[in-house]
Fold these 4 entries.
Entry 1:
Amino acid sequence: MSRNNYPYNNDSSGPTVIGDVAAALAAGGALGEPRTAIQLPDPAGGEPGVYTVVPKDYEVKDLEGFLPRPLRIKQDVTIQDAESFINYAKEFMTGATLIFFDVQQETFVAAFEYHEIGKPSWNDHTASFKPRRSVEFETWLGTNRKQMTQVDFARFLEENLPDIVEPPAAELLQVALTFEAKKSVEFSSGVRLANGQIQFQYDEVVRGTAQKGTIEIPEKFVLGIPIHVNGPAYRIDVRLRWRLQEGKVVFWYELVRPHRLIEHALKEISQKIATDTCLPIIAGSMDE
C-alpha cells in the first residue's frame, strides 16, 4: 500500500494510520450508550431517572419523555369549590401532604409531596383553592359607604330587596317606592325617632299649593346572604347613614365589621377541609 494513502503527522516519525473502523464505531457507540443515573432512594417510591451522555459536548440528556409514563406527577391544579378541593386532596394525598392557608390571599394550597425531615422534595404536585365570594356579598360590599342620591338609593333597595331579612321586605319596598315618587320634593329635616326609625320632613308643591309630609325609614336593617358561593347565609347588620344637602337627601350604608364575617366564613371552610381530609392546615404560604 502506498504511503500516500494515509494522512501524516506533523513530525517525520511516520504516518498516523486510521484504526479499525469497527472498533472506532463501537467506541463511539459506547460513549453514547444510555446509562441509568445514580439511583438514590425516592421518597415517593418512584423509579430513578433515565439519562444518557451523548458525544457532542458530553451533554446529559433526560430520557423521561421516552418512558411509557412520567416518573412523578408534575401538576399545579386550580380547584373552584371546597368539595372538589377535598375530593382531589383525598385522592392524591400521601404521608407527606400538607395544606397551607394564606389568610391574606384567602387561598388554600395542598402540597401532596412536601418535604420530610431528611427527605427533601421537588414539590411538583399541588392544588390550590380560593373560595369565591357570592354575588350578593360582593354587591353589598362593593357599594358599602358609597353615597347615593335619593333615587339611586331607592333603586338599589328595590334591586336587592331579597337580601334583606329585617325589617319585612314589603316595608322597605314601600320606602323605596315612596322615595322614587317624591324625587322632586324638598327635604327640610331628618330626625331619629324612639322606635329606631328616621323621619324625614319635606315640602311639596301640589297643584300650586305647598304641602308638608313625612317619610320614615329604618335606621338599621339586616341582610341574610352567603359570604361565599354555596356557603351558608350570614346575618349582616347594616347601619343607614344620611345627609341633607340643599333640600336633597344623600344616603349611604355601612356594613358592621364585614372583615370579621369574612374571617369567620374562611375559618369554617378551613375546619371543614381539615376534618374531611384529616390533613393539617398550616397558616402561611409556599414561597416560589
Entry 2:
Amino acid sequence: MSRPVRVLVADDQELVRTAFTIMLGSQPDIEVVAEAGDGADAVDLCRKVRPDVAVMDIRMPSVDGVEATRRITAAGLETRVLVLTTFDLDEYVVAALRAGASGFLLKDASAERLLRAVRQVAAGETSWAPTVMDRLLTTYLRGPDPRAAADVRTLTDREREVLRNVAQGLSNDEVAHRLYLSVTTVKTHLARVFAKLGVRDRAQAVVVAYESGLVVPGTETVSRP
C-alpha cells in the first residue's frame, strides 16, 4: 500500500484551517502533517517536513500565499501548491500560478472537490476549472507576450498540440485518448515542453500557453466537474 499524501494547510483563520485539517485528515490516503497561520510559517514548515501538497490561502498577513508559493518554488522543494481563493482575488491567483502553484480552488468548493484537487496535485496533475481559468486570464493577461510566443515556437507541432490540450484542462489520460497516443508518450512530450519553456510544471506551462496566444481565453475550453 502506498503512503498517504502528506499535506500542509496554510490559512490565517484558525477555524478555516481547522476545518480543512479535519476534512483532509478524515481520509485514509491523506495525512495533514503541519498547519501554518501565515506564508512565512508555511515556507519554513515546507522546508522542515517536506509535505507533498501545501493547501495555501492567498491572502495572509506578513507573507501572502503568492510570495510563499514563490519561495517554495525558488527553494526547489518538491511540495506542490494548491491555492485557495475567492473571485475577488483573481489577480493574485494569476500571480500564484506564475510563481509555481499547481492549481487553485475556490474557498466555497465542496469537500469532495477539495479532496479531488489535493489528490490530483499530489499526482502531478493540475487542478482548476477551465471556465474559471478563462475568466482569470481574460481579465489579467494583456494580449500575447512576444517572449512567450517565441518560446512556444521552439516546440514541435506535436508538443504544441499536447500543450494546447493540457491548457484546456485535460489530464494526461484525456490528452492521450484525444490524440491517440499512449500516456507515456504524452508525459514524454510534456517533459520536453517543460524543458524548452523553462517551466517547473503543468501550471506554469499553461500560463505560457495563454500568454503566448497558443490558447485564447473563451475558446476551445473543456468543461470538467
Entry 3:
Amino acid sequence: MEFRIELSSRIPIYRQLAEQIRGAIATGRLAWDERLPSVRELSRTLVVNPNTIARVYLELEREGILNTRPGLGVFVARPRHELTKRARRERLVQTVDGLLTEAVHLGFTAEEVSELLAERATRFHWTPESTGLK
C-alpha cells in the first residue's frame, strides 16, 4: 500500500494519512491482519516527522482500526462491533444526514444521490456480517 501526502493541502498531514488508512481498509486495499510499515519506515518514505506517524497509528488504534503487536509491528485490526446495532445505526444516520444536507446544498436530486451511492458502494469491501451473509 502506497501512501501520499499533499503538502499543499490545508488538511493536516496526520488527518490525510489517517483517512488514507481508513479508506484503504474500507475498500479492501489493506486486509485484516496486514502489517503496516513501521513508524520509522513510513516517516522516511513520506519524509514526515515520526511523531506524526506515531500519532496516526495511536489514533487509529484507539478507534479499534489498528492494533500493535509488541515486537511485531502495527496491523489492521479485525472489525469489532462494540457498539450495539442501534448505536451504530444512529452514528450512521448522523453521517448520512450530513451527506444529504450537503447534497441538497449542492443542488443534487435524491435520484442522483441514490445512483452515486449505489455506484460508490461497489468499491468498498463489505464484511459478510454487514451484507447479511454468513
Entry 4:
Amino acid sequence: MEAGLRVQQGGSGEPVLVLLHGLGATGDVWGGWRPLLARRWPGRWLAPDLPGHGGSPPLAAYTFDGLAAAIAVLVPPGAPVVMLGHSLGGVVGLALAGGRSPVAVQAVIGLGIKVAWTDEELDRAQALARQPPALFPSRDEAAARYLRVSGLAGLLPAGDPAVDAGLREQDGRWRLAMDPGTFAVGAPDMPRLLAQSRAPVILARGEHDPMNTDGQLARLGAPAITLAGLGHNAHVESPEESITLLDDYR
C-alpha cells in the first residue's frame, strides 16, 4: 500500500469495495456507511483520500488517469473490485476501469458526476487552481469554507470530526487541506470513459442534484438510477438509501 495516501478501511475478503469521495472532500464522507457496510458488504472496503485532499499528498499535476494510478496501488492485484465514486471520485473509478491499470474492476457506480460543463465553469475552475490556499484566522472560518467547497454545508456541523480531516493548521492560521491545483482536473470525456470501461457502469444521481439531470445521464446510454428526495451528496444525506446502489454486487 502506498504510504502517502490516507486510507480508512474495514472488513476482509472479497470483493473489495473502493469508495471515492468528490472534489474538495475526504474519505470521511463515508463515515455514515461504516455500520451499514459491516452488515451489508461481504468483503473488504477502502475509503482513501484522493491525492491533494485530506491527509494525502498532492500531485504535480491533476488528471483523471493520474488520480486513478494513485488509487490503483491500494488494491491487491487480481482482487475483484467494485468502485463506488461520488462526483470526481466516480470519474476516477471510470478511469480505473478503462484498461490502463491492473485493477480487476468488476463494476463502477458513478454517483453525482457532473457530465456537462460550460466554458465559463471550466475557466472558473482553472482560475481557482492557480490561487494559493486561503488562510483563515480561525478554525471556524476555515471549516465554513471547507463545508462550502466540499458541498457538505448543511449536512455536517462545523465541529464534526470529519471536517477536521479537511483542514490544516499553519503558523497559527487555518487553511483547507486540499491542494487548489485539484480544480484544474477539468471536465471528464464521459462518452470515451464509458466506451473504454471494461466493467459495467451504473450512473446514479440524487433527484435534487443541481450538478446534473436525468436527461443528461440518459443521453450517455449507461444504466441510470435516480435516488428519490436526495441531492448532490446523496451518500452523506442518506447512507441507508444510497448504499442500495451496491445491492447487485454483494
